[in-house]
Amino acid sequence: MPDVEDALTATAGKAFRLTRFYAEVYGAEPADASEISYISDSDYHRAAGLLDCVVDREAIIGILPPYYRDASRFPFTVPEDEAELVLRQRRIVRAMKDLGVDFGASPRFLIVADGRRGPFACELAKGFYWEGFQTSISFRNGTGDELRQDVARHDPDYVVLTSGRHLRHALERPRHTVWLVEHCGDPPVGGPEYPSLLYADGVDLIGSRAAGRTGYDYDPEQLLIEVDPASLLTHVSKLQFTCFPLVRYGLGRRVPTVDAPETDAS
Amino acid sequence: MSLLGTRERDVERMRRFFARLHQVSGHYRAVMDRSGLSPEDSPVEVLGRFPPTSREDYRDILQPEALSRLSGDRFVCDYSSGSTGQCVLRLATPADELAEQAVTERVFRRAGMRGGDTFVCADVGFPEIYEFYARAARALGVVRATYLHLNRDYGRSLEPIRRLAPDVFLTLPSLLARCWPHLRSVWPRGRSPIRSLIFMGEPMHPGLRRKVAETLGCRVYSFYGTTETGGMAGECDLGVGCHFDPTLIGATIARPEFVDEVTVQGELSLTTWHLRDHPVVKYGVGDVVQVTTRPCGCGEASPRLTVVERTHEGFVLAGLKLRYQTVLDALKQVAGDLDLLAITLSDLPESDGHTLMRLDIPDRFAPLERELLDVLKYKIFELDDLYQFGLVRFQLDFHADGTLDRRKVRRVTDRRRYLGDDLREDAAGPAPDRTPGSP
After folding, report:
1. Which of A51, A60, A137 comes nearest B146 by C-beta?
2. Which residue has the higher pLDDT, B313 or A128?
3. Which of A145, B89, B91, B267 gives B75 a disulfide partner, CB atoms 3.0 to 4.6 angstroms apart?
């Protein structure tokens, strides 16, 4: 797949030239895909901080909160610029369409978050606001019954659970209206019967999986998703980065995609 | 004139603050060195002679400096422009978040929040602010905390509040004013579950405040703060100014005028003694305030502040403060010799949005109408989001040169109900048109 490899090589070259981190990772500008190493969290020990990993500090307009408030796979805070915010928003729109949202119907969303996932839930909500959808957030620490009561109070069209542990409490709603947030740092949640959104720290939204499907849909123009032949784990590259590059960055698990739906046997 | 703690431990805190500042902030070290100030000096004297920190200092120097200093750390961001029109980040490390949370808990407790409460916040965006408030609320024993997102369809988006039945409700006065036609009839008069309504971000019209208290049967409390300095002060049951702790946030009044023997009025600047990683010294927040040390009838000995007016011509939209000069400077990007315009704010019918912002401009700039509108829609930080959310519409009216008389034109006119220029209780302005079917 020469086009994909060319895009990857160009992305790696840009990251090498523009960030101190990738300059240190590669040593020399990669000439082709074979010279682009698969990296993981541990490689970030080379970075003194986020400024080693960004293209232009002046362009930073915000941060990507990690999935867990007090824990992140990165040893620093991941920033973004306006261009990457726009790209991320496009991924959100693609995911919402994939999951069947009728943009003309003005659906209401309720995001259920607990104390640890609060900032993540807020960032998720903002992605929905930008499409004009009312999206409230319930900051939960209670029981399953209390969650059911909360959902009833809001009576949303969609309930988005940031933690799969809430699913056990059987919301008694049509399954297609309950979305799960799945995070690469955690084991896969439940089966494919619920629509889900796949996230990873530093990437934010990767893709979506409609109910009944085993693989995640994603935007191949923005993200390149590959399997490291040595570890058999999934790695992601941001092909259109402008602020915080990720090139063959390991997600820590195997992720099924629409073009490679098989899952990790373990 | 500054209000400071005077106990030995307060002085020691200030001394450590300046020592750390001198050590970690290149900008403030240079400021201190230029001013002949040493961390070894009396902190009271250091503060007294410390030059003020401007919005531009914050945006152009302190924020980039903080980003460098905290590059290897974990932090969260609050977004502000400091009324500069551009996005500025306030970085908060876990330590600074906890410091601000402690202040916020005290404000909430003073406003009657207690264990077992249901807490609902309502806004058109910025959920991360309310996630932070939910954390402070949980520390006080709140069992249910919800962020209710409002959009242009206020009736529909507010609909869950009856079932949520909040004990404590927090929102912005401008949003409360827009929601009021829907909110006022959710419960029988005087019998809502709301015990405390906390407002922030903007002053509240006395008429609206009275109406809300009577209709909902609740107390109304003001919560004062800024993005750059964090939440700072809150009212007690008596509602006679916002209590604050000067040992945590130092208040300096520039050009003070004594109202009485214990009350001064002047422009407020703040020093964030309680913040470790992104602090400010004498940061001008743009408010003229009265500060009093007169003992409050509630029994709390802390000083109280009351906002008198803004220091500059400006207005507030959904809690976001804009300056006239910010708008003018932004428009000059496309109309270089534009030096005068008039801004008028008025309510829109709910079906049409939230606020109409009309600009009166000399007609020689009429050929640039599209470009000028693009600046308003996309190039001013505060307005960008509000426009995208459908909460503000823009209208440009062009007038023959000479019609806009620099000597007579009023730069900002606010005709919005409960938010307008006349805050007297009987000057509530015309009501926005109601949507069909609303009470």
Report:
1. A137
2. A128
3. B91
pLDDT at residue number B423: 54
CB–CB of B104/B231 below 8 Å? yes
Partners of A141 on chain B (C-beta within 8 Å) are: 138
The DSSP annotation for B35-82 comes to TT--TTS-HHHHHHHPPPBPHHHIIIIIHHHHHHHTTTS--EEEEE-T
Q: Is residue A262 part of a domain?
A: no
Q: How far is B117 from chain A (nearest CA, A)?
A: 13
For residue A112, the distance in angstroms to the closest alpha carbon of chain B comes to 10
For residues A136 and B401, what is the distance between their CA atoms, to the nearest angstrom? 48
For residue B434, the model assigns a pLDDT of 31
Give mean pLDDT, residues A166-182.
75
Which domains can be identified in chain B, with CATH numbers? 92-310 (3.40.50.12780), 314-414 (3.30.300.30)
Q: Is A122 close to B67, i.e. CB distance below 8 A?
A: no
- Look at B74 and A77 and tell me if their CB atoms are within 8 Å: yes
Give the pTM. Answer: 0.92
How close B119 comes to chain A (CA, Å)?
10
Say if residues B347 and B416 touch (Cβ distance below 8 Å). yes
pLDDT in tens, B95-128: 999 999 999 999 999 999 999 999 999 999 889 9
Q: Do the chains contact at B127 and A126, CB–CB below 8 Å? A: yes
Torsional sign, CA A110, A111, A112, A118? negative
User: Nearest-CA residue of chain A relative to B60?
Assistant: A58
| Contact assignment for A139 to B145 by CB distance below 8 Å | yes
User: Which chain A residue lies closest to B123 (C-alpha atoms)?
Assistant: A136
**Structural domain harbouring A24:** 2-64+72-81+222-250
What SS3 class is residue B116?
Answer: coil
In three-state form (DSSP H/G/I as H, E/B as E, the rest C), the secondary structure along B376-401 is HHHHCHHHHHHHHCCCEEEEEEEECC
pLDDT averaged over chain A?
91
pLDDT of the residue at A4: 93
Overall domain count for chain A: 2
Question: Which of A113-117, A241-245, B97-101 is least confident?
Answer: A113-117
The whole-angstrom distance between A141's CA and the closest CA on chain B is 8
